[in-house]
Amino acid sequence: MHAVVIGAGVIGSSIALQLKRLGHDVTVVERNSAAGMGSTSASSAVVRFNYSTFDAVALSWESYFLWKEFKELIDGTNSYSNNPLSNSQDHYAHLEDRGYVMLDVPVLSNDKTMALFDRAGIPYEIWDSNTLKKRMVGIDAGRYWPNKPVKSDEFFNEATEELGAIFSKHGGYVSDPLLAAQNFAAAAKREGVSFKFRKAVIGIEKKDGRVSGVRLSDFDSQSKKVLDTGSEVITADVIVNVAGPWSTLINQMAGAGSDFTMELRPLRAEVHQISTPKDILPGPIMGDLDLGTYVRSGPGGITLVGGTEPECDVLEWVEPDKVDEVNMTRTVEVFESKPTVLLEDFQQLKFLPPQLE
């Protein structure tokens, strides 16, 4: 079987590697100049298990153990491949196994989460507010629900109650998602996967009611334009669409999606990097739906602050044909709001620059 994988992000590159290891011929098509240069490179790369369905919980739990053995997975040792090669690459991404704590919030049932964790065999602890304050030094355990815009007067109202959390000692984040994608791609190349970079899919070929290949054209990732240099067709028995925010356009080319029970559109979101003392948050990643944010530390003395799409925020949904027009620069408005939420969580964090306080 010949499979064409559209997209060389961390998902596409890993799929390509595993398909090859299963004995299939694989070609990966990517419009950028290297693996992981799309949305993968902007990922917070969080590994967690707090999902609302058992399938998602079980999948994330299984993937956790693969991230723990990432070097072996890439090298193909420990029976991961019939073509193993120790130390096959100079650098490897790795899992920062720090645990994950999710603060209580009315819309997320701890009972349901515990039932899913129990079914999957995931160890966890239930923390009351006193335990939360001991384990997350400096945190304000006040309950501020419902979410409020940072620029509203209500955002700074004093809390009248405190909240607890559910904690898993497992989970964390991948040290470098871009490197992880390139690790997967390099391993796939070593085992015989063909990569076609700077190529855009401009059409899906069909035969007898099934997809039969992809039509490609050269692509300039700087101008984000398809070049008028002709086209080529790659035949395929199977096409795997992992094109990230462009995947809806691929579906439309294939005539897929009309029977989907949900609409698929990209969402523009910002994650902000704040300079902080190294490992100021050495413990677990924190998800705080009460305030609508999540926080994790990073290498070299940085802290990443992202949002959880709270109802009080305006969500920037993007039309599928407008993805290349999206502003990829972080905005001042969101940059000012995320650190403010972080300060609400950790009121002792006076290390932040004055313009962020």
Give structural notes.
- The protein has 357 residues and is of the alpha+beta class.
- The chain has 2 domains: 176 residues, FAD/NAD(P)-binding domain; 126 residues, no CATH class.
- It has 8 helices and 19 strands.
- Strands 6-7-5-16-17-18-15 form a 7-stranded mixed beta sheet. A 4-stranded parallel beta sheet has the order 9-2-1-13. Strands 3-8-4 form a 3-stranded antiparallel beta sheet.
- Helix 1 runs parallel beside helix 6 and helix 2 crosses helix 4.
- The protein is globular.
- The termini are far apart.
Brief account:
The protein has 357 residues and is α+β, with helices and mostly antiparallel strands. The chain has helices spanning 10-21, 54-68, 70-75, 110-120, 129-135, 177-190, 247-254, 332-345, and strands at residues 2-6, 25-30, 46-47, 95-97, 100-103, 125-127, 165-168, 172-174, 194-197, 199-207, 210-220, 225-235, 238-241, 267-268, 271-275, 285-288, 293-298, 302-307, 316-317.
- The ordered string of helix (H) and strand (E) elements is EHEEHHEEHEHEEHEEEEEHEEEEEEH
Q: Give the overall shape.
A: globular
Structural domains: how many: 2
Radius of gyration in whole Å, from Cα? 22 Å
CATH architecture classification name of the largest domain: 3-Layer(bba) Sandwich
Specify the structural class: alpha+beta
Task: Provide the CATH topology of the largest domain.
Answer: FAD/NAD(P)-binding domain
Strand content: 25-35%
Q: How do the helices and strands line up, and which of them pair or pack?
A:
Elements: E1 2-6, H1 10-21, E2 25-30, E3 46-47, H2 54-68, H3 70-75, E4 95-97, E5 100-103, H4 110-120, E6 125-127, H5 129-135, E7 165-168, E8 172-174, H6 177-190, E9 194-197, E10 199-207, E11 210-220, E12 225-235, E13 238-241, H7 247-254, E14 267-268, E15 271-275, E16 285-288, E17 293-298, E18 302-307, E19 316-317, H8 332-345
Parallel strand pairs: 1-2, 1-13, 2-9, 5-16
Antiparallel strand pairs: 3-8, 4-8, 5-7, 6-7, 10-11, 11-12, 14-19, 15-18, 16-17, 17-18
Helix pairs in contact: 1-6, 2-4
